[in-house]
Specification:
Radius of gyration: 18 Å
Order of helices and strands: EHEHEHEHEHEHHHHH
Structural class: alpha/beta
Helix content: 40-55%
Largest sheet: 6 strands, parallel
Distance between the termini: 35 Å
Strand content: 5-15%
Shape: elongated
Number of helices: 10
Number of strands: 6
Strand order of the largest sheet: 2-1-3-4-5-6
Length: 201
């Protein structure tokens, strides 16, 4: 029996998915969470074989939590299930150790097949998403530039961002300037928008 954890913030979607997956003879949904903060604790208790994680979770990105889950529960295969089919997300998911990336608007049979494949040791990426990811190339942003842009999305001055990140104002300005240059934009707001659209944040 393949033990599954579902991390999806929309309760109706989560319940429907659990119902469908529990109909499979070889699958059992052992845990469900609706936010990023409880995912690690619930996964540690329930010990799933596969965690199906949405990218857009309340609190934190599903990709960031997935990176931690790989360390906390290395035997658990991670499959990202999302409506946000951005090439940068595919690349980030693979970089943090996810074994699958499936679009929510696909048939449930494709998800079931992906689950069985990752349990068998394969890596499964939606073919169309894989093509887009290969064409777009890797994110030009460093991890620090990405983190500063995420903070910039929350608003506030350079001093505010520096305070939240425990960095100097000049360091934050340098990261923002570099990110603006790499995204070919004029402001940090535009840079964050472009980076978000490409799935780099």
């Amino acid at each position: 029996m393949i033990r599954l954890l579902l991390a999806e913030d929309q309760a109706m979607m989560r319940s429907a998915l659990a119902l469908l997956l529990n109909l499979e003879d070889d699958m059992e949904v052992v845990a469900e969470v609706g936010d990023a903060e409880s995912l690690l604790a619930v996964a540690s208790r329930s010990r799933p074989d596969v965690a199906l994680i949405d990218i857009e979770l309340p609190g934190r990105s599903g990709l960031d939590v997935a990176a931690e889950l790989v360390t906390v529960l290395p035997g658990c295969a991670i499959v990202i299930v999302t409506t946000f089919a951005r090439p940068g997300y595919v690349q980030r998911a693979m970089a943090v150790g996810a074994r699958g990336f499936v679009a929510k608007d696909g048939p449930v049979e494709a998800l079931v097949d992906a689950i069985r494949q990752v349990v068998a040791g394969a890596t499964v990426i939606d073919p169309e998403l894989a093509r887009h990811a290969l064409r777009s190339g890797a994110s030009p942003l460093t991890e620090r530039e990405r983190a500063v842009l995420v903070e910039a999305e929350h608003g506030g001055s350079t001093s505010d961002i520096a305070g939240r990140m425990h960095l100097s104002r000049s360091t934050v300005r340098n990261y923002l300037s570099s990110a603006i240059g790499k995204t070919a934009t004029r402001t940090r707001t535009e840079a964050a928008r472009v980076a978000r659209r490409n799935g780099w944040l």
